[in-house]
Design goal:
Distance between the termini: 59 Å
Strand content: 15-25%
Oligomer: single chain
Number of helices: 11
Length: 324
C-alpha cells in the first residue's frame, strides 16, 4: 500500500478555524519532503466535486502559518451526503491520480472522509473546529485561538459593564457544545454561564442571582451565553425588566473564527498535518487524528464518530463556586 501512494491532496471543510493554514502547510511540505506530489482542493467537498484542484509546491504555503482562516477556502456541501455525489467525488480523485486525501474539519467533514474511504479513497481526518466538540481528541485546531479571542473581548466588555454598573450578556460561539462558554466563564470570572449541555431555561434563577448579588454590593453582572441557547437580545430585555438593572447583550459572533492563530494552534496543527501524511504513507486509511494524554494518536473514523463528549462536570461546579 505504501508504495502506491504517490499523490496526496488536502482540503478544508466546514467552518474555518485558526491554525488550518498551519496544518495545510505541514501536509504540503511533509509530503513533498517524502517525495510525493501534492494537490490542494479549494472550497472543501464542493470544490472537489467541481474539480477546483490545484498543484501545491513549497512556495504555495509560504508565509501562511501566521494567518487565520484557510488559504484553500471552505464551503458547506450538503449534497455530499448523497451516495451518487460521493461516488462522483471518488472518481474525480482517481481522475487526478490522488492516492490519499487529508481532510481538515469537524464531524461533518469526517463523515465525508469516511464516505470516500468506503469508495476506495485513502483518507485521514484532522480535527479542525473552534468548538472542541470532536470526542476522540482533547484538542481541536482553532479552539485555543478562538477561546483567547473571546476571553479578551469579554474582558473589554466587563470594563464598560463595571463602569456603568450593568448586567452584560455576552454570547460566544458553540451551537451544540459549551466549551468556549465554560472556559471563558471561568477565565473571565462570569457570574452565570449558560451551556447547551446544562442550561435548564430557568431564567428566574438568573434574575434571582442578579438581585442577590446586588444586595451583597455587586456593581455589575456578567453572563456568558452559548450560541446554542442564543436569544441574548431578548433575554437582556427580560432581565432588565425583572431586575431594574440596565442590561446589554453583546454577540461576539464570527470574530472568534478569525485572527492570527496562537502558538498552541500553530504547533499542534503542524504536528497533526505531518502525522496525517505519514499515516497515508504507512498504508492507513479512514483514520481520524487526535491528541490524547499528551500524544498524537489516530482512530478509525467510525470509532471516532461513535464517541461521545461532554463538558467536565467538575469544571462546571467549580465555575459556579468561583462566581460567589
Amino acid at each position: 500500500m505504501a508504495e502506491q501512494v504517490k499523490t496526496i491532496a488536502v482540503l478544508t471543510s466546514g467552518g474555518d478555524a485558526p491554525g488550518m493554514n498551519a496544518a495545510i502547510r505541514a501536509v504540503v511540505r511533509t509530503a513533498l519532503a517524502r517525495g510525493l506530489k501534492v494537490k490542494g482542493i479549494e472550497r472543501g467537498y464542493s470544490g472537489l466535486i467541481n474539480e477546483e484542484i490545484v498543484d501545491m509546491y513549497p512556495h504555495s504555503v509560504s508565509d501562511i502559518i501566521q494567518r487565520g482562516g484557510t488559504i484553500l477556502g471552505t464551503a458547506r456541501c450538503p449534497e455530499f451526503v448523497e451516495p451518487e455525489v460521493q461516488k462522483q467525488a471518488a472518481e474525480i480523485c482517481r481522475k487526478y491520480e490522488i492516492d490519499g486525501l487529508v481532510v481538515i474539519g469537524g464531524d461533518g467533514s469526517f463523515r465525508g472522509a469516511q464516505a470516500l474511504a468506503r469508495q476506495g479513497i485513502n483518507t485521514v481526518g484532522l480535527p479542525g473546529t473552534i468548538d472542541l466538540d470532536i470526542a476522540c481528541t482533547d484538542y481541536t485546531i482553532g479552539f485555543d485561538t478562538a477561546v483567547n479571542t473571546a476571553m479578551e473581548a469579554i474582558d473589554k466588555v466587563r470594563d464598560t459593564s463595571s463602569s456603568h454598573e450593568r448586567c452584560s450578556i455576552i454570547e460566544v460561539m458553540g451551537r451544540h457544545a459549551g466549551f468556549i462558554a465554560l472556559w471563558c466563564g471561568i477565565a473571565n470570572g462570569a457570574e452565570d454561564i449558560l451551556l447547551p449541555e446544562r442550561y435548564d431555561y430557568n431564567e428566574q434563577a438568573i434574575v434571582n442571582n442578579i438581585i442577590e448579588k446586588r444586595k451583597l454590593g455587586k456593581k455589575h453582572h456578567i453572563i456568558i451565553n452559548a450560541e446554542g441557547i442564543g436569544h441574548s437580545n431578548s433575554m437582556a430585555k427580560r432581565i432588565e425588566a425583572a431586575t431594574g438593572m440596565e442590561t446589554r447583550a453583546t454577540i461576539l459572533g464570527h470574530m472568534q473564527r478569525g485572527g492570527n492563530p496562537t502558538c498552541k494552534d500553530r504547533y499542534y496543527a503542524s504536528i497533526m498535518g505531518a502525522y496525517a501524511v505519514d499515516l497515508l504513507l504507512s498504508g492507513k486509511t479512514n483514520r481520524a487524528v487526535g491528541f490524547k494524554n499528551g500524544e498524537i494518536i489516530d482512530f478509525d473514523i467510525e470509532d471516532a464518530l461513535a464517541m461521545k463528549k461532554d463538558i467536565s462536570e467538575y469544571a462546571f461546579e467549580i465555575a459556579k463556586l468561583l462566581s460567589i
